Amino acid sequence: MRIGMLTSGGDAPGLNAVIRGAVLTGETVHGHEFLGFKDGWRGLVENDTMPLGRHEVKGVSKQGGTILGTSRTNPFEGRGGVDRINEVMTENGLDAIIAIGGEGTLAAAKRLTDEGVRIVGVPKTVDNDLDATDYTFGFDTAVGIATEAMDRLRTTGDAHNRCMVAEVMGRHVGWIALHSGMAAGAHAILIPEQRTSLDQLVEWVTSAYDRGRAPLVVVAEGFTLDSMDDPHSERGLDAFGRPRLGGIGEQIAPLIEHRTGIETRATTLGHIQRGGTPSAFDRVLATRLGMAAVRSVNDGHWGQMVALKGTEIVHVPFENALGKLKTVPQDRYDEAALLFG
Ligand SMILES: Nc1ncnc2c1ncn2[C@@H]1O[C@H](COP(=O)(O)OP(=O)(O)O)[C@@H](O)[C@H]1O
Ligand SMILES: O=P(O)(O)OC[C@H]1O[C@](O)(COP(=O)(O)O)[C@@H](O)[C@@H]1O
Ligand SMILES: [Mg+2]
């Protein structure tokens, strides 16, 4: 078979390991050929391709980013649509597409499979917010980077007796904040799922400070104080029309300082969390998902994505993964909150 492959949406460490896992299994075990589409759906709509074989995937699983490039192009906009995509697939002699992306990418893939295009999906999100899979690759790397950054913030915070605020990614969910905050021993973790009050935050910060600690506050970019209507956004919209988040740490730091009198500094980790070398866990998960995507193609599991359930890789219809975010459950937050302050 000839299989096209694309990566779409924000990048996540491990994308290249998925690509390598699929290409190596597909070529050596099953005799398939692969073709890369550049920059997500844009490459498929515009027929912008690149060779994708053993040579191209040599040594890439330790590289961040994606050798195929990515974008947030909607395949139904502009000159896109199902007829155009079928035309490009026929022109390239393709039997199937492996689409690696987040909820939006899978929503697009579902629409296309409903119209007869043969697509299998591989879930991608550093936020870990996709339902129907236990973990997504990229999340473990992001948590590791954030934890290391917080360990560093704590030593400088301790030296000056300051309160340190660390802002991490997490548009709708607080998984990165919860895990990195727990790992770093944060005195408060603020996540989109929990609309915390400034009074509560001040209580946690003061209690830690009064015990002689330099308070560490971890905040997810999508967090809103109970006095705010929407998550903080000051940088316009992204290519898909969503507000670009970021900056809530800088907003709450002066509020903490004003209310407590404790000198407070904020650091936004931003895209550092998504860049660079994937962790070993993410490389293994991504490689297994790439290999499983090829098995899905062999078995004709169109309209399904591969997913992690416990330690097993399973197949899940796109619709089961869409429409519902995997948020931080109340009991996981309550458990972490026992150690706040
Ligand atoms: N309902 C939809 N139909 C078609 N395309 C969509 C839909 N929702 C999102 N997209 C497309 O999904 C892609 C990005 O979304 P996603 O895969 O969730 O990544 P990210 O969360 O990193 O932005 C873009 O190509 C966007 O245009
Ligand atoms: O700067 P960009 O590429 O628009 O992405 C920012 C957004 O992407 C994210 O990293 C989400 O990425 P995922 O789709 O991989 O979960 C959010 O945390 C953040 O709001
Ligand atoms: Mg996403």
UniProtKB/TrEMBL annotation:
Listed binding positions for Mg(2+) are 103
Q: Which cofactor does it need?
A: Mg(2+)
According to UniProt, this protein's pathway is: Carbohydrate degradation; glycolysis; D-glyceraldehyde 3-phosphate and glycerone phosphate from D-glucose: step 3/4
Q: Where in the cell is it found?
A: Cytoplasm
User: One Gene Ontology cellular component annotation?
Assistant: 6-phosphofructokinase complex
- Lineage of the species this protein comes from: Bacteria, Bacillati, Actinomycetota, Actinomycetes, Micrococcales
Enzyme class per UniProt:
transferase
What family does the entry list?
Belongs to the phosphofructokinase type A (PFKA) family. Mixed-substrate PFK group III subfamily.
What task does this protein carry out? Catalyzes the phosphorylation of D-fructose 6-phosphate to fructose 1,6-bisphosphate by ATP, the first committing step of glycolysis.
- Catalytic residues of the enzyme: 127 (proton acceptor)
Q: Name one GO molecular function term.
A: identical protein binding
Q: Origin, by domain of life?
A: Bacteria
This protein is called ATP-dependent 6-phosphofructokinase
* Assembly, per entry: Homodimer or homotetramer.
Q: What is its EC number?
A: 2.7.1.11
- List each copy of the Phosphofructokinase domain by range: 2-295
Q: Can you tell me which residues bind ATP?
A: 10, 72-73, 102-105
Q: Where does substrate bind?
A: 125-127, 162, 169-171, 221, 265, 271-274
Keywords assigned: ATP-binding, Cytoplasm, Glycolysis, Kinase, Magnesium, Metal-binding, Nucleotide-binding, Transferase
Name the source organism. Answer: Microcella daejeonensis
Q: Name one Pfam family in it.
A: PFK
